[in-house]
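Input structure tokens:
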């Protein structure tokens, strides 16, 4: 009898998002220099919609806002304290204020405590 394979919440989410990206060309995934084996599939299958901005969480939100204002659905992915605190001003101004002009579809994902 084999032991069931455990899947982390992150891996499950990324797998589900990959499936959605295959069906919807308007979805982008932006990462702040995080690596995970689960991201390999996304990087390989959607190189034009997987963007690694490097260790630049503030820029991550700026790029996400620009894509969202052009009508794309954007998921951002970074270490939790950095995407919430380092990029707070950009989220407040570029996402919240911009959403008063037109819909801004950005989901901010924070993983781990750093």
């Amino acid at each position: 009898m084999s032991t069931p394979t455990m899947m982390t919440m992150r891996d499950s989410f990324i797998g589900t998002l990959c499936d959605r990206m295959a069906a919807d060309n308007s979805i982008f995934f932006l990462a702040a220099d995080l690596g995970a084996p689960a991201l390999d599939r996304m990087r390989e299958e959607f190189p034009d919609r997987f963007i690694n901005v490097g260790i630049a969480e503030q820029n991550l939100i700026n790029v996400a806002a620009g894509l969202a204002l052009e009508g794309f659905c954007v998921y951002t992915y970074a270490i939790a304290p950095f995407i919430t605190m380092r990029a707070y001003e950009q989220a407040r101004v570029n996402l919240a204020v911009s959403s008063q002009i037109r819909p801004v579809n950005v989901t901010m994902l924070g993983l781990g405590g750093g």
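The chain has one domain: 10-111. The helical segments are 9-23, 37-45, 57-69, 80-86, 88-97.
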